Amino acid sequence: MAMKSSSADGKTRSSVQIFIVFSLCCFFYILGAWQRSGFGKGDSIALEMTNSGADCNIVPSLNFETHHAGESSIVGASEAAKVKAFEPCDARYTDYTPCQDQRRAMTFPRDSMIYRERHCAPEKEKLHCLIPAPKGYVTPFSWPKSRDYVPYANAPYKALTVEKAIQNWIQYEGDVFRFPGGGTQFPQGADKYIDQLASVIPMANGTVRTALDTGCGVASWGAYLWSRNVRAMSFAPRDSHEAQVQFALERGVPAVIGVLGTIKLPYPTRAFDMAHCSRCLIPWGANDGMYLMEVDRVLRPGGYWILSGPPINWKVNYKAWQRPKEDLQEEQRKIEEAAKLLCWEKKYEHGEIAIWQKRVNDDACRSRQDDPRANFCKSDDSDDVWYKKMEACITPYPETSSSDEVAGGELQVFPDRLNAVPPRISSGSISGVTVDAYEDDNRQWKKHVKAYKRINSLLDTGRYRNIMDMNAGFGGFAAALESQKLWVMNVVPTIAEKNRLGVVYERGLIGIFHDWCEAFSTYPRTYDLIHANHLFSLYKNKCNADDILLEMDRILRPEGAVIIRDDVDTLIKVKRIIAGMKWDSKLVDHEDGPLVPEKVLIAVKQYWVTNSTSSH
């Protein structure tokens, strides 16, 4: 264990190596009473904990505050000999996205946006170094200030301030970017635009909770839905609009790098209450309506699709759009035709906005069974989407027994649906998972999160805005944390035994499928806290633990926190790896005591920025 000097004597005490199978927690408490934090505020924390009395579930030797600076941890000589030190990558990799690398992308075909899809580096080209933060990097502002302001040093790209100047997307002011809340289709502000949508779509009562924003720009739509308790999953490609998804995440808005191309979206069937395209440049009528069919797959029965911009109201706007009216007319005809085939009902069209609603079941759509254009998907598993080719086929509704029954089950309004038994559970759709097992899982996660808050009292204070759960299960961790101050990206690994992401969405939470043998579709430094429950046990012998931890480091902000829950043998191996990664860490017992073989590894990433002399 690394020990640093107290401020009283200013000298470094001897490092002490201790391994005890039983509880280390109280030892950490005693140590923390005099230990100086690596970030300069440890004395006050130690004094506070001394005054409050010993609590053996607290880890006072880790500082979870943000100070924008840090020191290297001290490792004992015998331990250092075994530690593999990971060096910083070169400064040119500060915004490296391994599976959306611009240079690699340009080697792929441009047809159907193939070059903007995921193309991960082969094993021999993987970086085995730590992605640096840019010079001057600071912790983002807290929400809600972060909605409107982003530090320039964190994403130093001014192109959008020029390109989108008249559309009110983003402005550069001094050392910050300001986001006025405008967009291409809502230059007067997202709030007024959403008010217009809300006159048709029931956003106020919790009926609409989850949304998908395709081609999101800087995600102002999702940002301004937050106050209405709607959670939007936004995506946009890494393209000429440099860093738009990075800006979204710096603002504290859920977003991933993604595109509608040739591969299915990484979301489950019947996930979203509404989907949105605001001048997103997706050719909705192309490929026999394939992209609309994919939106239909992920849209819940009764859900809404919003199209804002071309070709809606083309008769009035074709001159302003500088496009031939014949092309726009044909584009709208194809969209209307595809929507009719999907059995969507058009609810609204005014100005440049049109809104359709998906039927609650197939009862009103019987006539399309005889339509030769209605090609129904044959797959037994409509959630099997990872790297699967998109098809021009209609995903069938689940069967119903009456004309007014909601296919797949009716959801309660939010927040009631968060802790209600989801239809996928109550119907027995997930083999081997009973209602009792689901409710027990919820109880366990409430207990775990309560223990986490004793370890890190800043967990739900707003210190951590963007949170990721790398192996989310039913979303119990996110549900126990649910707050207006934060959001959780619930990741369900593609190799997980059971597909539970549909349950996550039925709870009113958001998430995504992903394989952790590859890099996640995000920019570096986009998450404040990462949680991993038995992830390393799951991926044992599947891929290299070093690569998973390096990816965690890439997407974690400086001074961000990590919570890893796993069996003790696995965590000891993980702890040995992260000792070479500029992380400070402590291993603590399960909340039920030292005899439980499951332990918790808590870590904090040190603050450091790029050094132009690094050579990797």
TrEMBL record:
Membrane topology reported for the UniProt record: Single-pass type II membrane protein; Single-pass membrane protein
Q: Which residue spans traverse the membrane?
A: 16-34
User: Which Gene3D superfamilies did the record assign?
Assistant: Vaccinia Virus protein VP39
Keyword terms of this UniProt record: Glycoprotein, Golgi apparatus, Membrane, Methyltransferase, Signal-anchor, Transferase, Transmembrane, Transmembrane helix
Q: Per the database entry, which stretches of residues form a coiled coil?
A: none
> One of this protein's GO BP terms?
methylation
The protein's superkingdom reads: Eukaryota
Gene Ontology cellular-component annotations = endosome; Golgi membrane; trans-Golgi network
User: SUPFAM superfamilies recorded for this chain?
Assistant: S-adenosyl-L-methionine-dependent methyltransferases
Keyword Cell wall biogenesis/degradation set for record: no
The listed locations are: Endomembrane system; Golgi apparatus membrane; Membrane
State the family it belongs to.
Belongs to the methyltransferase superfamily.
The name this protein carries in UniProt is Methyltransferase
